[in-house]
Write a structure and sequence with these properties.
This protein has two helices and 27 strands. It is mainly beta and about 350 residues long. Strands 20, 21, 22, 25 and 26 form a five-stranded antiparallel beta sheet that branches. Strands 3-2-1-27 form a four-stranded antiparallel beta sheet, with no helix packed on it. It has a four-stranded antiparallel beta sheet with strand order 4-5-6-7, with no helix packed on it. It starts with 5 loop residues before the first helix and ends with a strand.
Amino acid sequence: MKKKRWIWMLLAAVLAAAVIAAVLLIKGKSDGGGKAVVSGGHDKLLVSITDKDLMTKYYEDGRVLYEEKLSAYPAFALDDAHQVLYFVGNNDQNEMRLYKLDLKTKKKTVLYKGTASADSLFLSKDLTHIYFRLGKADEDIFRLASFDLKTKRYENLYPAADEKDDSVSSFFYNRSQNDFALLHYSVKEDYQKTDEANEKGIDPEPTNIRFAAGAGEHLQDLTNLEQFISDVAVSPDGKNLVFTSYTQKGTEQKASIRLMNVKTKKDETIISNGKDFAPLIDAQPQFSKDGSIIYFMAEAKGAKRLKDETGRNAKVRTIYAYHLDTKKCEKVWENDNGIINSFSVIQS
């Protein structure tokens, strides 16, 4: 990419800081020993973690599926039924690799290699494709793409192949409905607002973020918001979207998690800073399989600050569960010796 979008410059700093420690799944509190302990009452979660030596681990609840030296920001998907893990990494020349790991035999296979980047992996409902966000070295935009696990080839889904301005900032694949929720924006508009802010020495205004939903090439715009928005997810029934919105004033950031009704296009804040935690600007909110819970990442009050071998530091992240019926939050994953990179609800 020749130039990076402001929101992703901010997120890059957060993501870089996030890859510095290992995670512990808790019930109640951490034992400080780095051993994963499963708490009950929630969906199985797939969690990517990285320790202070930059070893990345992938957890399925309390079980370590795989670990290796960090080579790229972790992106992954799990075929739980067949116990196959898909993930990306880079080689010594910083070229992207898409891997398939058979968790039963421990056989690791390279499915694809190239100069493009891939993140946000989702496995299709029929287990034949991986959907991902594609970045090409010769383009300023990001795309939604599909990788065929049989032919080992990928195809562009959105935007159109000749599009040069419309960029995908985030997407979510809804396996229950076999469709997508997607955020996209104009790179030209974003560059203009960033340049104007730099010239005036002020914080940039948010770029207009467009919400879309639908199946593959038939995505339709729902609405748009002029807010800094990091991510999006959709409920299993497809009726609601959840996303992270945040404000930026200098180095101060404040995030909230909002719920949008797909039919009415109305949205409201459901989670914001509380006495016990503050949502991250990349909180990655996701619905439980039955749609009754929203999982998200936040910084707990008094969170421990950690430092990795490169000298970077960040505070411990915690995964919370927000119950839509009671409007109450509870801790699901936490570790005062480590920081969570990212997570997803395991689909079966």
